Structures are given as structure tokens and as C-alpha cells.
Amino acid sequence: MKIFYRISIIVLLVFIFFITYLSLVGFETKKFNNQITQKIKDIDPSLDLELKKIKIILNPLELTFDVKTIGPKLKVKDKILGIENIKTQIQLTSLLKKDLKVESLNISTKSVRINNVISFVRIIYQKPELYILEKVIKKGFLVADIQLNFDTKGNVKQDFKINGFVKDLDLSVFNKNEIKKLDFYFSFKKNYFQFENINFKFNDLNLSSQNFIIENKNDEYDIRGEIQNKSLSLNEKNIELLVNPYISFLDIKLASDNKFSFKINKKFQLKDFELISNVKIDNATLLNKFNLKSFFPQIKKNIDITDHNLQINFRENNFDITGKGNILLQNNLDKIIYSINKKDKRYNFESSIDFNKNPFVLEFLNYKQKKLSQAKIKFKGVKEEDKTNFELISIQDKDIKLNIVDLKLNNKFQVIDLGKADIEYFDSENKKNKFKIEKNRNIFLLKSASFNAEQLIENLLKSDKRKTNLINADFELNIDIDQLYLDKIYKLNNFKGSLFFNNDKITNGNLIGLFSDNKKFQFTVNSDGDEKITTLFIDKAKPLVNKYKFIKGFKGGSLDFYSSKIGSNSTSTIKIYNFKLNELPFLTKILTLASLQGIADLLSGEGIRFNEFEMNFKSDENLMTINEIYAIGPSISILMDGYVEKNKLISLRGTLVPATTVNKVIGSIPFLGKILVGSKTGEGVFGVSFKIKGDLKNPETTVNPIKTLTPRFITRTLEKINKIN
After folding, report:
1. Which residues are paired to 479 by β-bridges?
2. Looking at the predicted structure, is the pLDDT value of residue 354 above 80?
3. Half-sphere exposure (Cβ direction) of 382: Cα atoms closer than 13 Å
4. Can you point out the beta strands (E) in 266-386?
5. Quick one: which of 231, 241, 223, 319 has its CA closest to 282?
6. What are the CA-CA distances from residue 299 to residues 295, 653, 713 (Å)?
7. Are 353 and 377 in contact (CB under 8 A)?
8. pTM of the model
């Protein structure tokens, strides 16, 4: 019995030693090489595993052997994957039954080319996204752990797992744009991809993301993730890619935190895109494409944005954008706050700008800040497919209060409707302007206690006469202004009447006003079919004539204007009666060239008086044809004709005759001449013919003496003398 016990103890110790040795050290063998290699081939015949030795360690608790390869090589067609090791477990019972079963394989790679790994994965997991990855990946390396489980028939189960790390991955995506130096950790299982600690360069931009997930749900790929950057400087290429092309940024430095999600269906169509972004713009410069000189006189060529916070919520085609920060339009930083909401094809917007001692003007109202102050502009509205409705436009400053409600514009920025306007301000001439515009159906009422129309008249009389096309609507405007200033001196009282508009054109109208001495102003427009007749009569022509800066020292005079217009062609007459002027450049030059220095001195001194000026002319869009200009006075008489082309070129010819010559010629006419001019005669017959030709701003003037007056000149002079007498 002692011997038996001793033998039993020895056997037990040997067994324990054997078990311990197998559990801790194990042993190497080639016995299972064929079984493992065949198991790999069962996955796919193109797979070939080259094994050396296999190390086996006992797992006594689970009654399994842990099998680990040493220096294996996995071949996928013509590619070799560098394998660190392959692990599996073999049930002890299967060895006893001589029925080897491999239930799982754990494959750990060395640092291998990622394209080779994708090729391997595609063999066991045939999905189109892997094919796409294979096409866009240019280079890169990974280390991966691949866990495969097998069913009872030896087929790979779909509960596989792949974990690993990717280094120096280069991708070609988004046309010519590139992602380089992409590093991340990943995990992959059926229908689920997760990427973590992502760092990469996109067109030389350093970007990062903590998390990025791709999940297959119901034949759709659900993609979500995050992208962050702490400091990002965008070059022109990246700006063109990331920013609205209608806004020309020259440079941007920003930080952002972005969360996004979207889906891709089985046809690879993107849908349900969502983006939440928080952007901090340190500074940005954009090219000023906007014609805002009439509002901001010192506006810069480039606009700078600094310390700007921007929040973006984007979902499908709808979004919310809010922002605030500094903007440098002129010399000092201004504060801007704004929000934009898009739903379907409707945009809701709201913004305010606080001006920090920057000049602000409204040229159409002749308003300019006298002292740079803290002006504030607000606007709120809705942009739809075919129109924009400004629900509110508000300007608040020391010298101006402006509120406009329900201003509607079409896509050409033409006014199509207006709710009401309430405006009160001191203009550049320090005149107080206060008026309201209110709407009742299709009739607008302009009511004003005081309005300075000086700048408005100057704009209407500008030589270029550009079409503004500001209004695209049919409406009636009733005007009731207590005091209407024509210039610094002249004003009209009780200026009233109506104007009828059709697409920015006055079709009918009648306006009447009185000067302080009851002198009359009357303007009328009447349309009859294709013809429009316009008349203007003003007892005091000076406030209108003075708008033409080349005429100096104009005094007295009444003006009568008549025009008939059909289409773009008009026939017009201007008459001015009983006036005096001190300076007219072309006349001064003619008198000097003709050696009529006495009359020239008179012109520059006390001035030359005219009894009547009459101009008959025809106009179309490009050419003014002057049929006749005739002026007669105690000193000289002038008759001329010609044309002005596109307000640039001028061609005039005419006759200038001193009054003494006129008196002698007319006096030589038997009986009639004696009655008109008396028996006293002056010097001999004398006058000049002249030509004015060339650029309108600096034409060439030539003169030639004449000794015989034309019948036309004599006839027109007789007509005027008869009228005067």
C-alpha cells in the first residue's frame, strides 16, 4: 500500500507538473498546421496561410488548448499580410474524439498596408463601402486585431470584430481635395464602424475629431460624428470650398466645434443631413462687392470681421444662423448682430448694426451725420422666392429717426409695395424734414410739415439721367407738404397734388405750390394713349436754373416748359423770360474770340439781360437734337442749332449779333424799322458765326465775322421784337 500511495503521489505530482507546464509554458508543434491552414481556406480558397510552428498552452479551467502561431504569413491572392500571430482555442474533448474543431480565430497583424487589409476584409465581408474605401485610399498603414467566430459547420459567423489603429492614411475625396496624415483608432463589427481620436490634414488644414460612427440600419448608412479645430487659417483654395462663393473671403482665421449626422441610402444618395456648429472667427477679410458708398462714405475696399461668434444649425435644406461680433466697414469697429432662418424656400432675417463714430449718410434724403455718434440700424424681414418683405427698417441717431414698415421688394430690388414710413431728420443744409407715408388700399398719402427737395431736384436734373427703376407697381400718390424747399432760399407753401405711377413712371399728375409772394409753381403730366405731355411753369426760374453749376449769377425770370413724349422720343420747348446772368462759359469764350470785349466785360460785371430765351429740341435715349436756340436781349441776340450725343459729344453752330447791329438792320427796313427802333442807328452791320464741337466737358470753340444776317435770324428777331413791344 505504501508503494501504491507513493506511486499515486508521484503520478499526481507528475500530472500536476505536466498540467502546470502546459498551462504556463506549453509546447510547440506542427501537428495542427494543416487544420488551421484548412480553416483559413474554408473562409476563402484564395487565402493561403504559411505556418511554421504552433505554440499550445493548456487552459485547464475551460478544458481547452490556446493555440498561437509563430511568425505566420497570410497571403491574399498576390498580397501578403504581415501577421504578428494567429490565436485559436481547441476543445480538449475534440482532441480526445480525434475530431478537431476550431470555433474562433484571433488574428493580430503587424503594421501593414491598409489596402491589403481591406482586400482581406472584402473577402469575408462583401460590402460596397469597402470597395469605395479601396478606391479612395492612396496609402496608409494599420495594426489590427481580427476576431472570427465559426458555427458548427465551420462557416464564419457575422459576429466578427476588428479593432486597430490607422497611421498616415492619405485619401482622395471631394474631387481634387485631399485628406492626408489621417490617424485614428477604429473598431468594426457587423453593421457598425466607430472611429476615435481622429487627426488629419484637409488641404493642409489641421483638423481633429473625437468620434465618428458609421452604422448600417435598414439598408441605410447612418453616419454621425464631430470635427473640431482650435486654430484654423484658411487659404483661398479652402475658402472657395467651404464658404459661399458669392462672398469673397480673402483670409479667415477661426476655431470651430462641429457635430454632424447624415444618412446614405443603398443608391448612395445623401439625406437627413444635420450640422450643429459653433464658430469663433478671430479675424476675416472679405472683398467688398457691395455698392454702399451712398450709405457709408468711407467704406473700405476690404471688410474686416473680428471677434465673431457664429452658431449654425443645419437640417436638410433648412437652417438657423445667428451671429454677433465686430465689423470694420470704415475707420472704426462697429457691432453687428444678426440671425437668418431658412425653412423650405422662405428666409426670415433680422439684424442690427451699432455704428461707433463712423460716418453714415443717406444720399437720397440728403442726410449726413453732423457729428459722428452711436447710430443704430435695425431691419427685420422675410425673403421669399419672388420678393423680399422688410417688416421693419429702423434708423436711430441724434439727427434722424426713420421707421419703415412692410417695404416689399422684388428680386430686382424694385419697390412693389409699402405699408408706411415715418421719417424725421435734419439734412445737410440743417433743414428739418418731417414726413409720413401711409397707404389706404392702392393710394399713398405723403404728408409733410417740411421737406427740403434741393438734393432730389439736383438728382433729377443730372446730365446722365440714369434710369433708376426703383418702383415696379401701379399706385396713386397724394402729396400734401406745408413747406417745400427748392434750395436754401426759395420755398413753396401748400405744395399739393397727385401723381399716378405705372412701373416707376409718372403717367398722370398735377402739382401746385405758391412762393411767399404768391408767385406760382405748377407741374402737370397727362397721358393719352401712347403720348405723354409734361408741362412745368414756375414764376421764379432761379431755383431750377441754379442747379446747372455752369450758369452763374442768374436773376429773375419765369420758366415755361412743354414736352410731348411717344415711346423713347420726345419733342420739347423751354422758354425763360426776363432774366439776367453773369457767367456762361461758352458765351464768354465766343465774345472774347470775337473781340467783343465790352460785352464780355458786361457779362462778367453787372451781367447781360435777356428778354427771352427759347429752346426747341428733340430727344431719344442717345441723342438730343436741338432744332433751335434763340435768345434776345438789349445787348446781344443769339441763334443756334445742333445736337448733343449721349451727354458726351456736342456739336452746335450759330450766330451772335450785338444789339446795335440788330437795331441797324431792322431799322433799314422801310417804315417797319423806323417804328420799331427809331431813326438813330449805330455802327455798320457786324456779327459772328460760331461753332462749338467736341467733348461736352471741354469743347472746341471757333468764330468767324459776318457782314450779312441770315433771313432766319432777321425773321426770328422780328418775331421777338413784335412780341416784346
Report:
1. 446, 497
2. yes
3. 11
4. 270-287, 302-315, 318-328, 334-343, 346-354, 361-362, 367-368, 376-383
5. 231
6. 9, 46, 55
7. yes
8. 0.67
Q: Is 454 helix (H, G, I), strand (E, B) or coil?
A: helix
Q: Across the strands, what pairs with 159?
A: none
Bridge partners of residue 222, in order along the sequence: 215, 263
Which one, of 351, 346, 352, 422, lies nearest residue 388 by Cα?
A: 346
User: Which grid cell sits at 274?
Assistant: 444635420
Whether the pLDDT of residue 93 is over 70: the answer is: no
Per-position b or e across 369-398, b if 16+ CB within 10 A of its CB:
beeeeebebbbbbebeeeebbbbebebebe
pLDDT, mean of residues 94-118: 73
Q: Which residue from 335, 333, 397 is spatially nearest to 365, judged by alpha carbons?
A: 397
**Nearest-CA neighbor of 710 among 671, 674, 663, 662?**
662
Domain boundaries in the chain? Answer: 582-724
Cα–Cα distances in Å, from 401 out to 174, 369, 377, 379, 697?
51, 12, 10, 14, 40
Give the DSSP per-residue string, 94-145.
HHHTT---B-EEEEEE-SEEHHHHHHHHHHHS--HHHHHHHHHEEEEEEEEE
- Closest to 44 in 3D by CA, of 143, 132, 127, 154: 154
Greatest Cα pair distance in the chain = 183
Q: What is the mean pLDDT of the chain?
A: 80
Q: What is the CA radius of gyration of the chain?
A: 47
Which residues contact residue 330 at a Cβ distance below 8 angstroms, ignoring those fewer than 6 apart? 296, 297, 298, 299, 300, 358, 359
Q: Which range among 200-214, 385-399, 668-682 has the greatest average pLDDT?
A: 385-399
Look at residue 585 in the predicted model and tell me its pLDDT: 74
Class of residue 6 by CB neighbours under 10 A (exposed 0-12, middle 13-18, buried 19+): exposed
pLDDT at 492: 93
Half-sphere exposure of 12 (CA within 13 A, CB side): 6
Rounded CA-CA distance 496/494 in Å is: 6
Instruction: Tell me the three state secondary structure of residue 588.
Output: helix
- How do beta strands 443-452 and 474-485 pair? parallel
Cell of 196: 476615435
Q: What is the pLDDT of residue 713?
A: 72
Cβ atoms of 299 and 288 within 8 Å: the answer is: yes
Distance separating alpha carbons of residues 426 and 503, to the nearest angstrom: 31
Is residue 619 within 8 Å of 572, Cβ to Cβ? yes
Which runs of E-coded beta strand occur in 441-490? 443-452, 474-485
Backbone angles phi, psi at 324, to 5 degrees: -160, 155
Phi, psi (rounded to 5 degrees) for 365: -105, 0
Closest CA to 303 of 261, 351, 251: 251
Task: Read off the C-alpha cell for 697.
Answer: 466737358
∠ CA 175-181-187 to the nearest 5 degrees? Answer: 95
Minimal CA–CA distance to 334: which of 362, 295, 364? 295
What is each CA distance from 607 to 293, 589, 654, 683, in whole angstroms?
40, 15, 22, 23
Sequential DSSP letters for 222-254: EEEEEEEEEEEEE-HHHHHHHS-TTS-EEEEEE
Greater pLDDT, 686 or 454? 454
Q: Where are the alpha helices (DSSP H) in 524-658?
A: 542-545, 585-593, 597-604
Nearest to 630 by CA among 711, 720, 517: 720
Query: 30: exposed, middle or buried (C-beta count within 10 Å: 0-12, 13-18, 19+)?
Result: exposed
User: Which residues make Cβ contacts (< 8 Å) with residue 711, sequence separation at least 6?
Assistant: none
Name the DSSP class of 39: H
- The 8-class DSSP code of residue 370 comes to S
Map grid coordinates 501593414 to a residue.
112
CB 353, CB 413: distance < 8 Å: no
The three cell numbers locating residue 181: 496624415
CB proximity list for 126: less than 8 A, separation 6 or greater: none
Distance CA 275, CA 59 (A): 51
Pair 518, 574: CB distance under 8 Å: no
